[in-house]
Amino acid sequence: MVLQSVDSAMRDWDKFLSRRTELLKTLAPPVMHGFQQCDTVDADSPMFNGSWDWHSAVHAAYSLHVFVRETRDSMYMKVIDTKIKPERLGELVQQELEYMRSEAVQNREIPYGFAWMLLLVRERERLTRTLDMRPLACESVSGIRQWMDNLTADEARAMVLADSYRNLSWALINLQLWAVHTEDAELKAYVQKRMMATLKDEELDALWPVEVDTQLTQLQFFPPALMRLAAVSQIWDAPEHEVRQWITQRLPKELCIEPITEPLTGHATGLNFSRAYCLWHIFKIVNDLKLRDNFVDLIDYQVSRPDLWNGEYYNSHWVAQFGVRAIDETFAGPTG
To answer: Which of 50, 118, 155, 282 could form a disulfide with 151 if both were Cys (CB 3.0 to 4.6 A apart)?
Structure first.
């Protein structure tokens, strides 16, 4: 793999670990800026009316909590408090619940935005040791499950192959994380059953092979085949060697993802980060160090191109948060 703007020494894993907090700080300015705006798309949301739209404000809030955790800088909590006001939080949560239950929000934010809400509330509870936003997560679980339950088999297959907001793998990943966080055995069993019925459908292998997710011409922000494998790696409760074998069988012999240098759409500017997220989880199960290096390459390239995440507001309101999500995964698990 050739990366023109990334020094080879920066691909060393130990150096990545030593500078990942600085990478988060580098990505912080557009997250902070966007979250504090009052934009028009979701102007009636009590807490998440910045960052262009509701789901972007939610994953900005998630990112800000990560910044607090990893930098120990209270500046980020002050930004959070501009919208998630501690002195009014009980009232704001009830108002946000009503907003989330509106038909417009449900049609637009299930499953994608509600899945991000699970990440936000999980991160807040781990950071603050409070349950002050738990009702929003419960509403999100309910909304995502109802959506999944209403899918036909053909619709579910199409949602696994969705490369943006309706992606089923992304929804299942975050339901699983919430089930583990809350020690909810019933929800874990539900996610396991849904994963087995949908993500392990072998017809998907031919419908969207992993090779498609290495192309430079994709137009949306999720890589469906890679996200499917990342989801199975995190959810399937089979013995690790069995999960490893299943995933390895679906990988190209030499999986190598070049960074997208000239995205064809605004949404494609997030693909380097979302592909990196998936590579991290695939690496963790197959333990191929080349995949870990590829993860670092994609992160480093994207961060080295601020025009892709801190330029026009159309991109700056959301892309950096995808980078935060990918980098944050390396704080939570084995480093290889």
So the answer is: 155
